[in-house]
Amino acid sequence: MPAFDLVIRSGTVVDGTGNAARVADVAVRDGVVVDVGRVEGRGAREIDADGAVVAPGFVDVHTHYDGQAVWDGRMQPSSWHGVTTVVMGNCGVGFAPVAPENRQMLIELMEGVEDIPGTALHEGLNWEWETFEEYLRTLERRPRDLDVAAQVPHAALRFAAMGERAAARQAATGDEVAVMARLAAEAIRSGALGFTTSRTINHKSVAGTLTPVYGSQGDELTAIAAAVGRTGTGVLQLITDFDDVDEDFALMRRMVAASGRPLTVSLVQFGSRPRLYSVVLEHLARANEDGYAIRAQVAARSMGMLLGLQCTLHPFVTNRVWRSISHLPVAEQAARMADPGLKAEILRAQTDEKLQNVPGGLRIDRYDIMYEFDEVPDYEPAREDSIAARAARAGRTPEDLSYDLLIKDSGRSMIFQPFTNYADGNLDAVREMLAHDHTLPGLSDGGAHVASICDGSFPTTLLQLWTRDRDRDRLDLPFVIRRQCRETAVAVGLEDRGLLASGYKADINIIDMDNLRLLNPTVRYDLPAGGRRLLQRAEGYLHTFVSGVETYTDGEETGELPGRLVRGAQRRREGG
């Protein structure tokens, strides 16, 4: 009888500790790693991993699968990119706790903040819950291709305590704050990993109103944090604009002090304030020196919109002539737009209208920071490759060039417009943030921004770009694996995963690093009610295991769904 369920032989093991890679075997029994080294016993299944990297499964701490996890067993695109655990409920938005009369407000908020179609949410959410515990029970009933963990969102707490007064962003009374604190603590005790909130002006409902938690008083947040702390577990997460860095860190310090719990905050390089991120990093260092466990979640690359006829946005989206054919299927739009007469008409209308903005303030006339996605997506393009620069060299207008790019490949082509982390025309700022002592990789927003942004592939970018392809300032593979696997897991209290060592959960990736590559994003219409979403796949993931069960082989589904709901913090399990 085999001694093990699985033995992975002769792989280059990068175990998540940050130690140097080594050639070793990995043995698994009952969903747990039981030996790493020279394994003598045989496995019921044996995999020859010679020449491949063997690493822990990736832990993505910043996703928005709160709705998709209700209706779908596959957390794609994340599960295509070696992710074996996702944490959702970030940025203060989610769907529990909820009274029936507040459901619509939570849908409108998620649709606006995270660009998830309201029609899909209405169709896909079964609302078999009101309390957070009931929401977790709903999640628990569906097997998945990875593990999911939830956090309790501030917006849902505010609606639960204040009703429509929350939508008006009125100050909470002492009694209302007490209700929010009680509900937060109940959610943590039932299995929420933490509490999340938002302090950014960019988070608005689909109706354009600010998120109900924007401008919440510090006393309210501190009281909720203290209630979380009294449970003895849980983490805190927030996003802010850093308009006043001193004030923001004073609040975060208060929340950590009141709760005794760790906190993470989102950090990017803003185009309008390109050096602000360095100031935030300095504050992070000082806060940790002073004993406050505060880390920043940072992105693996520039964050930006994908523009195209298939997408929510493109440079002609408000053009009165284009809008006359916008109801047609994308391929037919592209075919019509190939007619020189219609092109001339659309371009004349574009010139007359002087398009600068679309609803929400997202500028789509910045041709100097727009780049064509060709056969291979380039997330660090040179300025001379921008549409504006290319058009100038060709003696054309950028509108003319972008028009031709949009109708390529029957309208399936896309233009990339980075709006954060690219103020310098390169990713040097991202490299500085990723390498800092008090940051974590995050912000992929898996499950969100489904028709305009596709960043669930961040883990693959960390490997492909930062450890292999970048021509300068690369990061060591053991460092990146430690950050994306072990440190992310520990940061949210999941001590049972992120390492390839005896007693740890057998979430494992076997990766062909030489052939690892991101593919271009594509569009599917497979959300509930036929909703549209952007997806991005990768090549090079040979095998992905969740709890010792293979979920993907060469990027294709095996049919196995071993992923489960993770209730609360987890401790290391003993191997067999």
UniProtKB/TrEMBL annotation:
Q: Which SUPFAM superfamilies match?
A: Composite domain of metallo-dependent hydrolases, Metallo-dependent hydrolases
- Name the domain of life: Bacteria
What UniProt keywords are attached to this protein's entry?
A: Hydrolase
Note whether Hydrolase occurs among the keywords.
yes
Q: Which GO terms describe its molecular function?
A: hydrolase activity, acting on carbon-nitrogen (but not peptide) bonds, in cyclic amides
InterPro entries the UniProt entry points to = Amidohydro_3, Metal-dep_hydrolase_composite, Metal_Hydrolase, Metallo-dep_Hydrolases_sf
Q: Name one GO cellular component term.
A: cytosol
Q: Name one Pfam family in it.
A: Amidohydro_3
Residues forming the Amidohydrolase domain are 45-551
PANTHER family reported for this sequence: COLLAPSIN RESPONSE MEDIATOR PROTEIN (PTHR11647:SF1), HYDRANTOINASE/DIHYDROPYRIMIDINASE FAMILY MEMBER (PTHR11647)
Give the protein name, as stated in the record.
Amidohydrolase
